[in-house]
Every structure is written in C-alpha cells, then in structure tokens.
Fold this sequence. Notes:
Elements: E1 3-4, H1 6-19, H2 24-39, H3 50-59, E2 69-73, E3 77-81, H4 87-105, E4 107-116, H5 122-130, E5 134-142, E6 148-149, E7 163-166, E8 176-179, H6 186-195, E9 204-205, E10 211-212, H7 216-221, E11 225-227, H8 231-250, E12 265-273, H9 281-296, H10 312-324, E13 326-327, H11 330-342, H12 347-353
Parallel strand pairs: 3-4, 6-11
Antiparallel strand pairs: 1-13, 2-3, 4-12, 5-7, 5-12, 7-8, 9-10, 9-11
Nicotinamide-adenine-dinucleotide binds at residues 42, 44-45, 117-122, 139, 141, 160, 162, 164, 176-180, 184-185, 188, 266, 308, 310-311, 313-314.
Amino acid sequence: MQRYRAENLTAATARILEAAGSSVEEARVVAEHLVDANLAGHDSHGVGMLPAYIEHLRSGLFVANQTPEVVNDAGAVIVVDARHGLGQHMVLKALDLGIARAKEVGACVVAVRESAHVGRIGAYAEYCAAAGLASTHFVNVVDHTPIVAPFGGSDGRFITNPFCAALPGPNGPTPLLDMATSTIAFGKARVARNKGVPVPEGTLLDEAGRPTNDPTALVDEKRGALTAFGLHKGSGLAILCEVFAGALAGERTIQPENPRRGSIVNNLLSILMDPKAFGDPLTIAKEAAAFGAYVKASPPAPGVDEVLLPGEPEARSRAERQASGVPVDPMTIEQIKEAGRSVGLSEAELGMLVRS
Ligand code: NAD
C-alpha cells in the first residue's frame, strides 16, 4: 500500500479543514490529532475520518471555530459545553482548565458535552500525562444510529463507547489503555470495507443477529451490529461509559427519546489526578515500572513473541510510521480528495497536497 509522510498528510488535512471554515489553529490541532492516530496505528481514527468531518461541517452538524462554554464550575468538577465544535480542539481547551485545577486541588473531573467527534481518546491521556497527571476517560457517542449490540442482544443499542486510562511515566504514559468497548472500533470495519477484506470472526452480527464477517451492510447502510468485547463484562463497561459520559457528563444518552440527526457527537467524562496529591511521583512511577517489567517477564504463550503492555503497540507503530510513512489505501485517498473538492479546492492544489 502507498505510504504517505506524516507531514504531508497533516498539511493536506489542515488545508482541507481550513477550506471548510476552520481557523489555521483549529485546522492544525485537528489535522495533527488525526495524523497522530494514523501514526499510532489507529487508521480507524486517522485521516480517513476527514471526509465525514467535512460533510458534517458543510451540513452544519459540526461547527468550526467554537469556543467551549463552561456551564458549571464546581471546584473539582468543571462542565464544558462544546456546542458541536470540532472535538480535538474543544477537548484540549477543556482539559487545560482541568489540568490547572487538578494541579491546584489534586484532582479534577472534566465533563465535555455535545462535542463533535473527539477522535482517538489516547491522545487526551497522553496530553494529561505530558502535564504530569494520571487520567481516566469515559466516552459515549450520540446523535447517531446505535451500532453495538449488548451482551445477549441482537441489534445496536449503543455505539463503540471508548474507555481510556493512563499513568504518567518518565518516558510517556505507561501503561496507556485506550479501547473501544466494541470488539473492534467501527472505523476498523470502515477500513476493512474500504480495503475489501473481512472483519475478524466474532466482531459482527448481521441484521438477524447472526455472526458475519462482511462489514459492507454495517458500513454502507448501518444494518447489523458490532459485538461488545468481552461478553457480559465488556458490554457492562460500554453501558457504564454510556451513563458516566452520557447521562452524568452530557445529560444525553443514545436512548431513542433523544435526537439522532446522523452526526457523531461525543460526551466525555475525564478524571484527572495529580500523583503529587497521592505521594512521591517518582516512587509511584518506579512502582508502576517495576510492575510493568514483572508483567512483561511472563513467559510468552505458544505463538506469541513478546508480552506487551497497553500502549506499547502504539509507541512501536509511531516509531515505524514516522520513519517509513503512513500506509493509506487508495479508496481513503480518493475520499479525502473528494472532501477537498467539495470545499472548493482545485484538482491542481489537491494533486500538490495529497502526496506521498
Ligand atoms: P485496539 O484494540 O487496537 O487496542 C486497545 C488497547 O489494547 C490499546 O491500549 C492497545 O495498546 C492495547 N493492545 C493492543 N494490542 C495489544 C497486545 N498485543 N498486548 C497488549 N496490549 C495490546 O483499539 P480499539 O479498541 O480498536 O480502539 C481504537 C481507537 O478508537 C482508540 O484510540 C479509541 O480511543 C478510538 N475510539 C474512539 C471513539 C470515539 O467516539 N471518539 C469510539 C471508539 C473508539
């Protein structure tokens, strides 16, 4: 597959977002986030999301250049309404408030409601860790047809509700767990659809609730459902994400009395914790590192090369893709160009921008 240098993908993505109305600053923040998701190996949340962002900006479901509004500041709780502003930009602004507060009082719960898609949640745990904070994030997705079946169910009742948590360490956050609560993220079904390959066994149900591995009906027509990961336990965590991020932080779950306009709206509940409020940050980091080393020393099971900690696959992918470029399939490249055309970019400019 053709590989693209991260800088070129970032420049192209930012230019298309600017043409769709984002400020230079907003376009840069969103483009860097999307390309970093590709670098981390999560193509489902990378530049392949751009066409949907542009479509929603054009239809008014996403709003460029929003200023997040603090609707409640209760000391250790800050509630922010993102008013459908581009999620990456809105969440970083909200987290800046929470980081300052957590450093003041030891911890802060940040609720971001009504945000346009916020992308890869691990980026926010990395942002908190870079400020020296541990964090955990619950996210739900609304304004959309549900596509994940609960354990024992046969149709979609919620979306891929991600959960994320990380501890800061001397060389970045470790461990960094960042996962959809569906067996695979919806974007991974989209990537498989674009590549024309099946999704893994056990990840998908057809509209009659039977297992299938063809993502076409789900991706193209929202027929069928993804499965929740980990049987009843993963399904339970997805439901908790829905009530923590949806009901508590956002006052909006995916239950059918709420609107479903076909947008991708995230609510997010982030808990930021300053290790200094718990003890000596160095001792905490050393203890976590010793535990991580103990976990990694488990003899690999047959067929496994190495035991990895959560976050290690992303760090390795970043190193490899920074050096060799990000693989992007031709269908995704064409969809990105089409998004550029839809906001008035010429064929010549797109040819110059979208290059390896
Ligand atoms: P995944 O299954 O690839 O990885 C999940 C976690 O498992 C990661 O922390 C990873 O480091 C770890 N991991 C993977 N392989 C491992 C191994 N061999 N050993 C040890 N740990 C390993 O991720 P996913 O569930 O497909 O999620 C993809 C992305 O989608 C995430 O970044 C998530 O935030 C994002 N997402 C966003 C939304 C949204 O609405 N904004 C919704 C769903 C998912």
